[in-house]
Amino acid sequence: MPEQCDPRPYDALLLLSFGGPEGPDDVVPFLENVTRGRGIPRERLKEVGQHYFLFGGVSPINAQNRELLDALRKDFAEHGLDLPVYWGNRNWAPYLTDTLRTMVTDGHRRIAVLATSAYASYSGCRQYRENLADALATLQTEGLPVPRVDKLRHYFNHPGFVRPMADGVLAALAELPEETRAGAHIAFTTHSIPTASADTSGTPDDRTEDGTGGAYVAQHLDVARSIADAVRAETGVDHPWQLVYQSRSGAPHIPWLEPDICDHLEQLHGADVPAVVMAPIGFVSDHMEVKYDLDTEATAKAAELGLPVARSATVGADPRFAAAVRDLLLERAATERGTTPERCALGALGPSHDLCPVGCCPARTPRPAAAGADWTGPTAEVPA
Fold it and tell me: EC no. (predicted)?
């Protein structure tokens, strides 16, 4: 087998995602899964679920993951990479534990995991690793073989993730009225998280340049700069930009990352900015936080202000992203075999770590988390 297409020691890839409802009857049970342990009343969940009910109770995320699965399988086949790809979710069917059970029943013991979250944070990384740990523990109690799972590194700055988004910003700029285009600002958006979680994301070495934030903010700023640079190189225009936030869901008294995208649009309108591109760089696909919070809520705010806006595309199932996943898989496989592969990354931060170190993206209440340096739970003894 050619070295460049050799997935050993891995015998399968798991696409691990958040999950979402696929009909009105799924919405509240799905939200109960998401908020498990927080004691949120069912009536409150029905209120929160109105965003989903506006779209028939269907989140776009599952359909988008199916498209990504197809793109990955197509890319693998075209490049002679004979590796099965499975899909499991944290909060809705197909559930992670069920998928891992199927994988071990199918004979897989060394599994690479790609999470549909590109950046470092508790909710975007360690919580997925905690879910993996829970699933492995369940397999062990059922007397099933326990596979070794390795989570692929953060890919926020991989060219196959960044370049499709840069093309998306260029396409969005072209949608704006011609007379507003040159003066348009770019609002790079991502999911707001509590500032305490943002500050402790990544490791102590992963802070922003001014030391005011952790890896979550630093990584998004790095991607935003890379995209802004690519847009300037293509158009000759240096568009002003800012990293802003959306989709806050926490208690009002807890500080979360700001400014909110709608507040930012008001500020830009007050400063006589002629137009804005909303670029959701924090999201892999056009799921509910994009379709509602940007395409519905923020777009309505812009219309109220009389401010022209365009929303750029997320990466989704772009073939370049599928190729990036193949690259990340083969890179990690080569590392596990003891070689030193080329590691692609744009921007100033360089490629992320393969193995999350102890203390990375800590939770308020420590729980076992698989696929990290601190994992001591069940793992099958498998050949390297």
Answer: 4.99.1.9
CATH of the domain at 67: 3.40.50.1400
Q: Which of 124, 304, 85 is nearest to 214 (CA)?
A: 124
Cis peptide leading into 341, omega within 30 of 0? no
List, edge to edge, every strand of the sheet that includes 148-151.
85-89, 12-17, 110-115, 148-151
Shared domain for 166 and 307, answered yes or no, is: yes
Would you say residue 202 lies in a domain? Answer: yes
The reply, when asked if residue 121 is annotated as ligand binding, is: no
Q: Is 289 marked as a binding-site residue?
A: yes
Q: How many domains does the chain have?
A: 2
| Predicted TM-score (pTM) above 0.90 | yes
Q: Are residues 16 and 138 in the same domain?
A: yes
- Is 128 annotated to bind a ligand? Reply is yes
Establish whether the linkage from the previous residue to 84 is cis, with ω within 30° of 0.
no
Domain that holds residue 79: 12-155+318-337
Q: Is the domain of 263 the same as that of 121?
A: no
Contact (Cβ atoms closer than 8 angstroms) between residue 21 and residue 58: yes
Q: Would 272 be classed as within a structural domain? A: yes
Same domain for 322 and 244?
no
Please check whether residues 329 and 302 belong to one and the same domain. no
Instruction: Using the structure block, give the residue that is written with the tokens 């359909």.
Output: 63
Instruction: For 344-358, write each residue's pLDDT tens digit.
Output: 999 999 999 999 999
pLDDT 10s digits, 18-44: 999 999 999 999 999 998 877 788 887
